[in-house]
Design a protein that fits this description.
The strands form three sheets. Strands 1-9-8 form a three-stranded antiparallel sheet, with no helix packed on it. It has a three-stranded antiparallel sheet with strand order 2-3-4. It contains three helices and nine strands.
Length: 198
């Protein structure tokens, strides 16, 4: 046992500085620990995306991002819709039966969509992952057949798709464009990344 008397002021100082250090350490630790959690951007990358399509006019297309992929939303004209069944004999998979990109049941039709006029598709070619270009104008054009009725052209290797994202035969792309899960929450609001079955 020590015969040195206890200095109460030193003890108080040590306890106070120890507590202050613990509080400061907690303030430093909270941001450090929270940095391990996914960022808001990372959370949003996998989350469903709501899109207002009220301003979309016939013949127009908008692109949104979902899970880091470009998703096309196109409002087809009545003429564009009427032309779709005419292509069936020229397409590699007209009924979307292949399973590389499973097509939702509600898009297993000629127009590959819930609402006939609105096409929703991932704008990534099934060949090597390029993004096809819009070639909506009908008629002869460079890299396209003379009887072209409008659709998409992948400029990398020449794969062509109709306005339902279905790939034409004898092209490098093995499959149609992917149709992501989606649903309508109103006549003018679309949610990409969720459907009623999910």
């Amino acid at each position: 046992m020590s015969s040195t008397p206890v200095d109460a002021s030193k003890r108080t100082w040590l306890i106070a500085s120890g507590c202050a250090g613990a509080v400061g350490g907690a303030f430093v630790a909270v941001p450090f620990v929270s940095s391990f959690q996914p960022s808001e951007r990372a959370k949003a990358a996998g989350a469903a995306v709501e899109v207002d399509i009220s301003a979309l006019q016939p013949g127009e297309k908008v692109t949104v991002e979902w899970r880091g992929k470009p998703v096309w939303i196109m409002k087809r004209t009545p003429e564009q819709l009427a032309a779709l069944p005419k292509f069936d004999g020229q397409l590699a998979d007209p009924k979307s039966d292949r399973t590389a990109y499973p097509t939702p049941d509600y898009a297993k039709n000629t127009h590959r969509s819930i609402k006939p006029e609105i096409f929703v598709g991932v704008g990534i070619c099934s060949h090597l992952g390029c993004s096809p270009s819009d070639k909506f104008q009908a008629g002869p054009q460079p890299s396209l057949p003379d009887d072209w009725q409008g659709g998409f052209l992948c400029p990398c290797h020449g794969s062509t798709f109709d306005l339902a994202g279905r790939v034409f035969k004898n092209k490098p792309a093995p499959d149609n464009l992917e149709v992501p899960p989606h649903m309508y929450v109103s006549d003018t609001k679309l949610v990409i990344g969720e459907d009623k079955k999910a």
